[in-house]
Amino acid sequence: MKWNIYCIGHDFTRDIEQIVALFFEDPTLIFHRIEQKDINEIAKPAMAIAMEYGEEVTVGIQLFPPKGDQTYSISHGEKVEEEDGVARRKHCKRVMNKGLLKVLEHYAGMVQPWGILTGIRPTKLMHTLVQEGKKSEEARHILREERLVTPEKIDLLQQIVDRQLKVLPDLYQLNEKEVSIYIGIPFCPTKCAYCTFPAYSIQGQRKLIDPFIALLKEEIKLVGEYLKNAGRGVTTLYFGGGTPTSIEASQMDELFQVIYDELPMDGVRELTVEAGRPDTITPEKLIVMKKWKVDRISINPQSFTQGTLKGIGRHHTVAETIEKYQLARSYGFSNINMDLIIGLPGETRKEVRESLVQAASLRPESLTVHTLSFKRASEMTQHKEKYPVAGREEIHHMMEMVTHWTGEEGYVPYYLYRQKNILGNLENVGYSLPEKESLYNIIIMEEKQTILGLGCGAVSKIILPGTGKIIRFPNPKEPRYYVDHFQEIMSKKFAKLIEG
Ligand code: SF4
Question: 466 or 139: which carries more pLDDT confidence?
Answer without folding.
Answer: 139
